[in-house]
Amino acid sequence: MRLFFIFFGVLTPVVSVVAQEPPTAVFVGGKIVTVDAEFGVREAFAVRDGKIVATGTTREMRALAREGVTAVHDLGGRMVLPGLIDSHVHAPAAAVFEFDHEIPSMETLRDVLDYIAARTRVVPAGGWISLQQVFITRLKESRFPTRAELDAVAPQHAVNFRTGPDNMLNTLALKKCGFDRAWTVTDGGPGYLEKDAAGEPTGLVRGLSRAIRMGETGRMPTVAQQRERLQALFRDYNQIGFTAVCDRGATADSIRHYAQLRADGALTLRVAMSQTFPTVGAMSSILAAIDGIAASPHRAPDAWLRLIGTKIWLDGGMLTGSAYMLQPWGKNENYGIRDDAYRGVLNVPPERLLTMVRRVAGHGLQFTAHAVGDAAGTLLLDAYETVNREQPIRELRMGITHSNFMTQASVERSAKLGVVLDIQPIWLHLDTRTLVQQFGYDRLRWFQPLKSILAAGGMTGGGSDHMLKIGDLRAINPYNPFLAMWTTITRRAKWYEGQLHPEEALTRRQAIEFYTRNNAHLLFWEKDLGSLEVGKRADFIIVDRDLLACPIDDLKDTRVLETWIEGRAVYAREGR
Q1: Which CATH architecture fits 106-211?
Q2: Which SS3 state, helix, strand or coil, does residue 283 take?
Q3: Pairing mode, if any, of strands 201-206 and 166-169?
Q4: How far apart are CA 386 and CA 400, in angstroms?
């Protein structure tokens, strides 16, 4: 027997206690944003065996409760959302980044140089000092430190100022790596040294991180400590509302960590994985690596841990001046660009890329690639179109990771092919100022064009690309989803006046879907997650304000009061 109730003109079923066992819990007296196809709003819902069994009014849900069996939770008018999903993190590396020592936040070159100078008093002379992912777009000077500046603060140490795929080295570091005016790439991979007018290396090394072998630069955690810190990071993800994430750079080691936590019942959020494989070397070994990934037991359906595909790095970065662009970057001393024709760094030639995509598709796996520049995205779409003529790829949900710089054509092609776009709004918020200085406002017309993607029938979801540190606002990159939602709605950025192409702004509904329903689709979990509907898993959060009605600038300050996974509380804010 089923009872039916009408809400917002939609006939909504409520499971009857006559036909079903009573729920184990009901949540009543709230504003339940279901994020279903109609974006319905309810007062209450019921949970049994970790799944939602009914939604409706408070009176109706209370009627389903049975004394001694059903826990009744009064929401006190609070808003409830589906559990949030981050489509792009690098959790294992982020968790242990500060194991040796805390890294301060840096907003100026003086901060950078002071940190390096302080490390010279700790690291023995001749040793390496490394500073990772302090992106120049986020420094007030918007430039790399020079080789001379690094030499001045650390003349007896090898210094590596590493930002994504690019590195600024001091003199001793260049010497240790063998980088001189005669050095050339010999392994067939990408990358090169920037040189001055006299042909001497400036210290800026693009796409050659594989050639910089520093060894360990501090205390290293044991396996047990790595897992402890990973659990601590997951709890921090929970406190900001995440119930699922995707590791967009999973390695064999990180998968072992996840698998052990899964076996121990110690996961507090769900993990999807895109596993990496090498792109330099003999194609036979690359294809063998893909075949090995395809044979993983973690491809089996699992509500907590699942391998969904592969990930490679196709181009450089916009934060460092090496994204692969359709038009030249333009000379810029801040980025160290001296060539008028320079278009960035392409890591994988088109013919090799096609071979990789074809092999991954043949295994029924999702392929995605770090592709920041519009030329990189275009080449990736070319490969997808070619493979699509050989076998349909829509159900594989091939991806473009980052997809920051697009064109109208790439927006339309992505929608046509069913390609999903994993985009990070925090990059718009933190990097717009420098990007406008470099490219001009008009050239950024198709930068993170979220509204156009959805209007074309495409699919995009929100990620953080969380790389380093624990802390939703102090991390590189910050993983606070409410700041990201606010950014998609306002298109406003730090240290930048006005809005970046507000015609591409999302509505509040679309911003919520960006981190729930859409991301569930990106990660092949849409049947279980992403909305609060009968039959789906009871992953939800309770927040301290109404995201649909609060002043827009208050939205970014939203606090999560409770986080629940499968009807079990995994986080509750103290003093709520």
Answers
A1: Roll (3.10)
A2: helix
A3: antiparallel
A4: 16
pLDDT tens for the chain, 576 residues: list them.
344 433 333 434 444 333 479 999 999 999 999 999 999 999 999 999 999 999 999 999 999 999 999 999 999 999 999 999 999 999 999 999 999 899 999 999 999 999 999 999 999 999 999 999 898 889 999 899 999 999 999 999 999 999 878 899 999 999 999 998 888 888 777 878 888 889 999 999 888 888 888 877 778 899 999 999 999 999 999 999 999 999 999 999 999 999 999 999 999 999 999 999 999 999 999 999 999 999 999 999 999 999 999 999 999 989 888 999 999 999 888 888 888 999 999 999 999 999 999 999 999 999 999 999 999 999 999 999 999 999 999 999 999 999 999 999 999 999 999 999 999 999 999 999 999 999 999 999 999 999 999 999 999 999 999 999 999 999 999 999 999 999 999 999 999 999 999 999 999 999 999 999 999 999 999 999 999 999 999 999 999 999 999 999 999 999 999 999 999 999 999 977
Cα-based torsion angle of the residue sequence 264, 268, 272, 278 in order, rounded to the nearest 10 degrees: -70
Return the CATH number of 86-90+223-529, one of 3.40.50.620, 3.30.420.10, 3.20.20.140, 3.30.70.20: 3.20.20.140
Q: Where are the domains of the chain?
A: 2-77, 86-90+223-529, 106-211
Structure tokens of 14? Answer: 């409520």
